[in-house]
Structure formats: structure tokens, C-alpha cells
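Reopening: C-alpha cells for the zinc ion complex, inputs below.
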Amino acid sequence: MGATVVLEETLIDNRPVLSATMHVSVEQIDVTSGLPATEADLDWTFVDAEGHFHAYDADGNLPTLVQPKRKYRCVICRQRIRPGFRIVPADMFRRYAPGRREITLQIVATSQPADVVSVVTPVGFGTGTVHGHGMRDGAFEFEVIVGTWGARKAVTA
Ligand SMILES: [Zn+2]
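Re-run output (same inputs, fresh job):
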């Protein structure tokens, strides 16, 4: 998964470049669950023999139960309680979560870059390492693999 954009007004080591194209790709991490699991059933409620109400709170905690030795018991009467759980089935389809982001810049410039350069673009700034040197029509073509990157707070005119 990725996106490519042409950038205006890009500086490499504070010098304007002839052209800059940015490619952003985001690693996709497979988070598919292959096995069924259990989770707290937040709908579960129970009134024990002494009339004490039990349920999960919104965070999935059991405020009216204690668990002295693996078994849940009523805080007041110590009756054994089995809190409700439900089965979460294994995923039928692959699921992905976004992972590490990689930004690369394709640059054409009039001067030869250093091995590590400062990058300033309209969408962010940072530093990167220079790869894939080449010359075309008297200009320097290279790729910058961004190492550190950030965006400045938007300035309103
Ligand atoms: Zn009780």
C-alpha cells in the first residue's frame, strides 16, 4: 500500500531541487487470528442467592467479585460466581494493521548531494540517506530514503 505525490518547493541541504517526487508506503502487518478466543461478555449480569448483583463494568472489570484463588467469589457473601464469557471465533478472512511507514523521495537536482541530507518539503521535513546516484542531462538524479521525518504545525496566514 502506498501513495506517490509530486512535491513543489523542495529543498535538499537548503538548495532548491529541479523536481521531487515522494513515495510513502505503509507496511501491512498480518493480525489474522487463527484460533478462537474468549472475551468478557459485557452483557452478562447475575444475582446471587443473597440478592447481590454482579456484572462487568464498561472496562471489563468485575467490581463486585474477588478472585482469591483463581475462582471468582462475591465480595460480600463469598458465593462462587462464574462470570459470563463469550467465544470470539477465529477470523474467516486475513486482517491487517498498519505498521512501519517508509518515505522515499526521487530527486533531480543541479548539485551533487552528500551521503546524508536535510530535506524540506511542503508536507514535512527531516533527514535521509542518499541512494542510486545517476546523471541525466547534466542533472543529478538520486533517491533519498527518509530516516527522520516530521511535519510542522500549520501556519495560518
Ligand atoms: Zn453475594
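The mean pLDDT is 91. The chain is about 0% helix and 55% strand. Marking as resolved unless the reporter disagrees.
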